[in-house]
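ZP: hey, is the flavin mononucleotide complex queued? I don't see it on the tracker
AM: it wasn't, my bad. submitting now with these inputs:
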Amino acid sequence: MDAFAELIRSRRTHKSFGPDPVPRETLDELLELARWAPNHHRTNPWRFRVLGPVTLERLKDAAGPPEAPKLDRARTLVLASCVLSGDLQQDEEDVCATACAIYTVLLAAQARGLAGYWRTPRVLRTKAGREAVGLPDGERFLGLVHLGTPRGEPPVPERAPLEAYREYLP
Ligand SMILES: Cc1cc2nc3c(=O)[nH]c(=O)nc-3n(C[C@H](O)[C@H](O)[C@H](O)COP(=O)(O)O)c2cc1C
């Protein structure tokens, strides 16, 4: 199997991470690659905000006791969002482009031996959670990307086979 196929197949959602944060230099490499995602009209809709300790505490306060400890799983958390224009078609395409950008970050992390987790915690769909991370009204929250060194090997989730979703039209 070629290296790229192997990278795609072996990327996993990790929920347990080592204690070290991802160095800023590495993070900038990952986030720079994100801008090469396909993007109709080149609107550059993605925004990535790396949470610092003060912001993390604010978000944990907003999440409340049962959910807050889950925000400590990885030392590096990156909030990914999409700037909305108000044009429904453009926004749909921009959300897709931002999802591609997030996947790029996950794959680039995997290629560097790092673990990733695309998470959509409920707190970031609340006003308090959005305020805690300074997410403006005109942005759609898409994910809180967890990054770090891998700890353990997550199970490989079942996937539907090719035949279940591929069709050749006449
Ligand atoms: C848009 C999006 C949101 C996700 N949100 C969550 C989440 O909130 N919690 C979670 O456990 N996994 C979340 N995931 C990860 C998926 O559950 C995971 O990709 C799936 O179980 C397949 O596992 P794999 O990534 O190891 O192949 C999310 C994935 C995507 C694409």
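AM: back. The mean pLDDT is 97.
ZP: great, adding it to the tracker
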